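Example 3.2
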Amino acid sequence: MISLARYRPASRSSLRVAIVEDNTTARMNLRSHLLSLDNFEISSYSNGKELRNGLRTMNFDMVFIDFHLGQAKNGVEWIQQLMDAGSFKPSMGLFFVTSDSLPQTIGQILDLHPDVIMIKPYTIKGLTNNVKHYLQVRQQILPALQNMDAGKNQEALRFIEEQLQNGVSKRYESDFLKLKGRLLLIQKNYDEATKLYSGVLERSSAVLWAHWGLIKSEFFTGKWQHCKNMLDRLIDESLTKDKAYEWLASVEIGKQNYILGEQLLDNIKDSELTIQATRLKTLCYKMQDKSEDALALLEKKVQSNLSVKERLVDYAMELARYHLHLAEQFTETQKTDSVSAARVMLGKASHGISDRQAELQKDTMLALAFLLDDDKPRAQRIIEEASQAHQLSKANVGTMVDAVKVWFGLGQPEKARAILEECDAKLLEHENHIESLIAADLLAETEKTLGIGRERALVINEKGMNEYNENRYQNALSYFHRAHSMFPGVPAFSLNLLQCLTDSNQAEYKDVSIDLLVQELGTISLSDKNLKRMDNIKQKLAKIA
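Structure, written as tokens:
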């Protein structure tokens, strides 16, 4: 037996390990192999729901989870849900075990920053080496992990940087850099993250976690052309193909190239589309007025997941949301049919809901359905009860936007505006590229529909100015770009975006470049003050060039 005693927490005689595997034989084999390594305290579960219940009473040092968990949600979906709920802590070692090496599977797993990916059939020697290496690294980075558990990410980053400066063993350097990159992404320090991942790839172009880290950094920095160039190269890689198509589609959809976005997603089988990729494809259909295709895709996903209660909730609520979207566009008769269809889907979803956020999402959509049915008293009662029972500030942007529509419809615009303020902050916090795209689109569409686009653009531009004055250029670019997208012809919005790009020494941001903005401003009549400002920007650009 290999003694791992020195890796145990001082307060415990053994390390706690969770195994999540739906196959009884595979679960027992893994347990037996782990016990042959050391006297681990092992808890075994057959699915994510059992793990969630286990995490309510204890923490684990390592979690081994299979990707495929029978007909239920897969391992990635469960871990993501537990991370979102704060149940799965950064200090828990994450080992993914899977016999599936398909690109879409590996891509999903990599998004979670796992410590180890083990492909079945694995050997005892491979398992031993992976566990031993992880525990040796863990011993050295534990202070950083504990800071992350406490939400002290800056302190965690400082510790990792100090260790790297003092020099770490070559065997562990990659692990330290991987954690540093993860922390830089969490801190939204995308420029530093870009440098780190680029440096790793210069030494070895085969490091997948560095590829995805660099792509994510450049996506959120708005350097979409760089991002696209990298993705084009990864299309040919077997382990990254499907994920590359998903990211490429995100870039094109962000540029409002919905036809191309749809074509890129067509490279992934409908059965292999994740919930997020399904939402992306639905957005493509919606923006092309291809509602029949959107409904057909979502209905297919609902039907194929009828026996998977947890996943059915997600797809049923997406279908309900699309029916409500149609109801907002339709005449009275068609509206009634769409609202009725939405309520049926919300009813389906309600049977499988097991967390507060999903409950709040369902109730908010139900309130919107009654509002569209002109039953304001019922809509008000539901939204008030939901707001009292749950914290709307912790909801996703989609749920918050539904609440905005309801409060506006009930004649309480101040409540709606307060929620919109919180939505602005949420958009800056998004770590998921697909969620950020869909949330931004939903927010812009709602502002336009409610007739508050210009008012909101002015508010968003002012927020951009505040961020710019504090030299927080990435946040400022996000706000200025939103204001410019809402009203491209407003000189102040275009100038602010151009100024910020120039001062941050960045040639592009998403679908806008310095050249395009200069060209656009050349066609707009500018005041003397703005002309002077434009001349100053041009002089600065000439020096940079």
